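Journal club side-thread
Mid-discussion, someone asked how the predicted structure for our own chain would compare to the paper's figures. Pasting it here so we can look after the session.
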Amino acid sequence: MNLILFGPPGAGKGTQSSFLVESEKMFQLSTGDLLRAELKSGSDLSKQLKEIMDAGKLVSDDIINNLIEKKISDPSVKNNIIFDGFPRNLEQAKSLDDMLDKYNQKISAIINLKVDYSVLVKRISGRVSCSICKKPFNEFFDPPVEPNNCSNNKCDSRELIKRSDDNESTVTNRLKTYDDQTLPILDYYRKKGIVKDVDAMKAINEVTGEIKSIISNL
Protein backbone atom coordinates (compact mmCIF):
# COMPACT_ATOMS: atom_id res chain seq x y z
CA MET A 1 0.00 0.00 0.00
CA ASN A 2 0.98 3.62 -0.55
CA LEU A 3 -0.13 6.32 1.91
CA ILE A 4 -0.21 10.10 1.89
CA LEU A 5 0.15 11.83 5.27
CA PHE A 6 -1.75 15.05 4.74
CA GLY A 7 -1.99 18.19 6.87
CA PRO A 8 -0.63 21.70 7.39
CA PRO A 9 3.02 22.40 8.29
CA GLY A 10 3.73 21.21 11.83
CA ALA A 11 0.78 18.77 12.00
CA GLY A 12 3.14 15.88 12.72
CA LYS A 13 3.48 14.29 9.29
CA GLY A 14 7.20 13.65 9.69
CA THR A 15 6.82 12.25 13.21
CA GLN A 16 4.04 9.85 12.26
CA SER A 17 5.88 8.82 9.09
CA SER A 18 8.92 7.87 11.15
CA PHE A 19 6.84 5.69 13.46
CA LEU A 20 5.23 3.92 10.52
CA VAL A 21 8.59 3.37 8.87
CA GLU A 22 9.76 1.62 12.02
CA SER A 23 6.61 -0.40 12.75
CA GLU A 24 5.34 -1.13 9.24
CA LYS A 25 8.70 -1.14 7.41
CA MET A 26 7.47 1.39 4.87
CA PHE A 27 9.60 3.86 2.94
CA GLN A 28 9.20 7.52 3.92
CA LEU A 29 9.31 9.80 0.91
CA SER A 30 9.73 13.32 2.27
CA THR A 31 10.04 16.22 -0.14
CA GLY A 32 11.52 18.18 2.75
CA ASP A 33 14.37 15.69 3.07
CA LEU A 34 14.92 15.68 -0.69
CA LEU A 35 15.02 19.48 -0.79
CA ARG A 36 17.30 19.79 2.24
CA ALA A 37 19.72 17.33 0.64
CA GLU A 38 19.77 19.54 -2.45
CA LEU A 39 20.27 22.63 -0.28
CA LYS A 40 23.42 21.08 1.18
CA SER A 41 24.81 20.33 -2.26
CA GLY A 42 25.98 23.91 -2.85
CA SER A 43 24.59 23.90 -6.40
CA ASP A 44 23.06 26.91 -8.15
CA LEU A 45 19.68 25.30 -7.55
CA SER A 46 20.39 25.15 -3.80
CA LYS A 47 20.72 28.94 -3.63
CA GLN A 48 17.42 29.38 -5.45
CA LEU A 49 15.74 26.85 -3.17
CA LYS A 50 16.98 28.62 -0.04
CA GLU A 51 15.40 31.91 -1.11
CA ILE A 52 12.11 30.17 -1.89
CA MET A 53 11.95 28.14 1.34
CA ASP A 54 13.05 31.00 3.60
CA ALA A 55 10.18 33.06 2.21
CA GLY A 56 7.73 30.27 2.98
CA LYS A 57 6.87 29.75 -0.69
CA LEU A 58 6.52 26.51 -2.63
CA VAL A 59 9.16 25.01 -4.89
CA SER A 60 8.16 24.57 -8.57
CA ASP A 61 6.25 21.43 -9.55
CA ASP A 62 8.86 20.44 -12.15
CA ILE A 63 11.63 20.27 -9.56
CA ILE A 64 9.50 18.35 -7.06
CA ASN A 65 8.05 15.92 -9.61
CA ASN A 66 11.46 14.95 -10.93
CA LEU A 67 12.71 14.20 -7.41
CA ILE A 68 9.57 12.21 -6.60
CA GLU A 69 9.56 10.08 -9.75
CA LYS A 70 13.13 8.95 -9.11
CA LYS A 71 11.88 7.34 -5.89
CA ILE A 72 8.61 5.95 -7.25
CA SER A 73 10.49 4.18 -10.05
CA ASP A 74 12.63 2.28 -7.52
CA PRO A 75 11.31 -1.36 -7.44
CA SER A 76 12.54 -1.85 -3.86
CA VAL A 77 9.89 0.54 -2.50
CA LYS A 78 7.02 -0.28 -4.88
CA ASN A 79 3.59 -0.02 -3.21
CA ASN A 80 5.26 0.57 0.16
CA ILE A 81 5.65 4.37 0.27
CA ILE A 82 4.53 7.00 2.77
CA PHE A 83 4.32 10.38 1.02
CA ASP A 84 5.21 13.07 3.58
CA GLY A 85 4.65 16.65 2.38
CA PHE A 86 3.61 15.71 -1.16
CA PRO A 87 1.47 16.49 -3.09
CA ARG A 88 1.07 20.18 -2.16
CA ASN A 89 -1.29 21.35 -4.88
CA LEU A 90 -3.87 19.91 -7.24
CA GLU A 91 -1.51 19.69 -10.20
CA GLN A 92 1.00 17.73 -8.11
CA ALA A 93 -1.80 15.40 -6.99
CA LYS A 94 -2.77 14.69 -10.59
CA SER A 95 0.88 14.26 -11.57
CA LEU A 96 1.36 11.81 -8.69
CA ASP A 97 -1.60 9.74 -9.92
CA ASP A 98 -0.03 9.66 -13.38
CA MET A 99 3.39 8.69 -12.02
CA LEU A 100 1.97 5.93 -9.83
CA ASP A 101 -0.12 4.59 -12.71
CA LYS A 102 3.00 4.58 -14.89
CA TYR A 103 4.66 2.23 -12.40
CA ASN A 104 1.50 0.18 -11.68
CA GLN A 105 0.84 1.65 -8.27
CA LYS A 106 -1.88 3.65 -6.48
CA ILE A 107 -2.66 5.54 -3.26
CA SER A 108 -4.45 3.38 -0.69
CA ALA A 109 -5.40 6.15 1.78
CA ILE A 110 -4.95 9.82 2.63
CA ILE A 111 -4.31 10.25 6.37
CA ASN A 112 -5.56 13.78 7.07
CA LEU A 113 -3.99 15.17 10.27
CA LYS A 114 -6.26 17.89 11.66
CA VAL A 115 -4.65 20.50 13.98
CA ASP A 116 -5.57 23.98 15.27
CA TYR A 117 -3.47 26.65 13.55
CA SER A 118 -2.63 28.52 16.77
CA VAL A 119 -0.92 25.37 18.02
CA LEU A 120 0.89 24.90 14.73
CA VAL A 121 2.52 28.33 14.93
CA LYS A 122 4.05 27.44 18.31
CA ARG A 123 4.97 23.93 17.17
CA ILE A 124 6.99 25.26 14.25
CA SER A 125 8.36 28.59 15.50
CA GLY A 126 9.45 26.91 18.72
CA ARG A 127 11.43 24.12 17.05
CA VAL A 128 15.14 23.88 17.90
CA SER A 129 17.62 21.00 17.72
CA CYS A 130 21.11 20.10 18.88
CA SER A 131 23.82 21.14 16.42
CA ILE A 132 25.58 17.79 17.00
CA CYS A 133 23.16 14.92 17.72
CA LYS A 134 20.13 16.64 16.11
CA LYS A 135 17.92 15.91 19.14
CA PRO A 136 14.74 18.00 18.73
CA PHE A 137 13.19 20.31 21.32
CA ASN A 138 10.39 22.86 21.36
CA GLU A 139 10.72 26.15 23.23
CA PHE A 140 6.98 26.06 24.10
CA PHE A 141 6.05 22.38 24.49
CA ASP A 142 9.31 20.51 25.13
CA PRO A 143 12.04 22.95 26.24
CA PRO A 144 15.57 21.74 27.10
CA VAL A 145 16.46 21.40 30.79
CA GLU A 146 19.23 23.96 30.32
CA PRO A 147 18.45 26.98 28.10
CA ASN A 148 20.05 26.67 24.66
CA ASN A 149 21.79 23.41 25.58
CA CYS A 150 21.22 19.81 24.49
CA SER A 151 20.80 17.33 27.36
CA ASN A 152 23.11 14.82 25.70
CA ASN A 153 26.43 15.08 27.52
CA LYS A 154 28.15 13.14 24.72
CA CYS A 155 27.89 16.12 22.41
CA ASP A 156 31.13 18.12 22.30
CA SER A 157 29.16 21.25 21.47
CA ARG A 158 25.58 21.31 22.76
CA GLU A 159 24.33 24.52 21.19
CA LEU A 160 20.74 24.43 19.99
CA ILE A 161 20.01 25.73 16.52
CA LYS A 162 16.87 26.86 14.71
CA ARG A 163 16.09 26.52 11.00
CA SER A 164 16.03 29.93 9.31
CA ASP A 165 12.45 29.34 8.09
CA ASP A 166 11.13 28.38 11.55
CA ASN A 167 9.83 31.80 12.62
CA GLU A 168 6.32 33.12 13.21
CA SER A 169 6.20 35.30 10.10
CA THR A 170 7.32 32.51 7.78
CA VAL A 171 5.00 30.01 9.47
CA THR A 172 2.03 32.32 8.94
CA ASN A 173 2.95 32.62 5.26
CA ARG A 174 3.28 28.85 4.97
CA LEU A 175 -0.16 28.31 6.51
CA LYS A 176 -1.74 30.81 4.12
CA THR A 177 -0.05 29.06 1.19
CA TYR A 178 -1.36 25.74 2.54
CA ASP A 179 -4.92 27.10 2.74
CA ASP A 180 -4.76 28.57 -0.75
CA GLN A 181 -2.97 25.81 -2.65
CA THR A 182 -2.81 22.55 -0.66
CA LEU A 183 -6.04 22.25 1.32
CA PRO A 184 -8.22 22.08 -1.83
CA ILE A 185 -6.57 18.73 -2.65
CA LEU A 186 -8.72 17.10 0.03
CA ASP A 187 -11.83 17.54 -2.13
CA TYR A 188 -10.01 15.81 -4.99
CA TYR A 189 -9.20 12.80 -2.79
CA ARG A 190 -12.52 12.75 -0.93
CA LYS A 191 -14.24 12.17 -4.27
CA LYS A 192 -12.09 9.05 -4.57
CA GLY A 193 -13.28 7.93 -1.13
CA ILE A 194 -9.80 7.46 0.34
CA VAL A 195 -9.51 10.29 2.90
CA LYS A 196 -9.25 9.24 6.57
CA ASP A 197 -9.46 12.09 9.12
CA VAL A 198 -7.34 11.92 12.29
CA ASP A 199 -7.40 14.33 15.26
CA ALA A 200 -3.72 15.29 15.47
CA MET A 201 -4.33 17.46 18.56
CA LYS A 202 -4.19 14.27 20.63
CA ALA A 203 -1.01 12.84 22.16
CA ILE A 204 1.49 11.53 19.62
CA ASN A 205 1.02 7.89 20.63
CA GLU A 206 -2.77 8.24 20.33
CA VAL A 207 -2.45 9.67 16.83
CA THR A 208 -0.12 6.81 15.92
CA GLY A 209 -2.69 4.32 17.26
CA GLU A 210 -5.47 5.82 15.17
CA ILE A 211 -3.33 5.67 12.03
CA LYS A 212 -2.36 2.04 12.67
CA SER A 213 -6.05 1.20 13.13
CA ILE A 214 -6.85 2.79 9.78
CA ILE A 215 -4.04 0.92 8.05
CA SER A 216 -5.11 -2.42 9.51
CA ASN A 217 -8.51 -2.02 7.85
CA LEU A 218 -7.23 -1.16 4.37
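Post-session note: The chain has a mean pLDDT of 87.
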